[in-house]
Amino acid sequence: MIRKLFIYGARSQKSQSLIPALEASAADAGIKIAKNPEDADMAVCVGGDGTLLRMLREYGFPELPIAGINTGHLGFFQEFSAGEADRIVGLLNEGGLSIQRHRLIEASARTSGGERRFMALNDIVVRRNASGIVHLRLSVDGSTVEQFSGDGLVISSPAGSTAYNYSVGGSIVDPRTELLQIAPIAPMNTASYRSLSSGIIVPPGCDLVVAPEGRYLGKALIVADGNTNPVEDFEGLSVRLSEKAVNVVRRADYDFWGKVRDKFDL
Length: 266
Ligand code: NAP
Ligand code: MN
Fold this sequence. Notes:
Blueprint: E1 4-9, H1 13-28, E2 32-34, E3 42-47, H2 49-58, E4 65-70, E5 80-81, H3 88-94, E6 98-111, E7 114-120, E8 123-127, E9 134-140, E10 143-150, E11 152-156, H4 164-167, E12 180-185, E13 200-202, E14 208-212, E15 218-224, E16 227-250, H5 256-263
The structure holds NADP nicotinamide-adenine-dinucleotide phosphate and manganese (II) ion.
């Protein structure tokens, strides 16, 4: 039984228009509206996948169950449709739903000025700037895999595998697995530069490091779920799957691969 519900909506007219009905059906069921996720035992997020990402960042990646109502494009995280908005509180209160746990990506950048930490649900991207090439040494458990040259690397979780990772040719990953995928963005392969042209996949718990090479020491952009952070005096980034997770509410008959088929129009 839900006692306190947190409702978050995208700014769009379509998303905002669903919120009064949600609040009314919560009131009818004797459920209070919480001002932030900390005080709630369930959240409803109205918008696209990007809205869920924004809510998570705004509230420090809360671990309460989040039910998404999709008003965006793909809706990989958003389990319910806009048409279900007036029934959602009942559905959530009845139970019979399942919770999908997505471990977050946790990264720590070493700089001459200290450490900077990043969290993401989908992906962490390392690049030089908006347009320049970057040379990055990618290592796993202390062993160098490659000296990458190109636009950058996308390090994604299984949940993020259908986002940027997919656009750069990475594999779609079943969310029941736990792993990190490192996919290249425009890898260079010439007589002078040899980069892997495919991604690599590593298990959780391994020591993954992306470090700038030679004259590329210094500046980098670390992009966490689409949020761009310029990092000065960048020396390297350690990335791992976090023990922290996001809990997404799913229907009992949730079918990831069916969603892939439908959303990519296969
Ligand atoms: P955005 O620039 O507004 O849109 C990115 C698109 O990716 C939206 O259509 C979004 O869906 C969709 N998306 C987000 N997470 C997804 C997931 N896990 N699986 C499938 N599709 C997903 O940015 P945003 O909405 O804040 O999303 C941030 C994400 O954008 C980043 O984490 C990165 O993965 C992705 N991105 C992709 C590219 C690319 O494909 N070339 C480039 C940069 C960033 P909604 O419409 O439902 O929000
Ligand atoms: Mn978006």
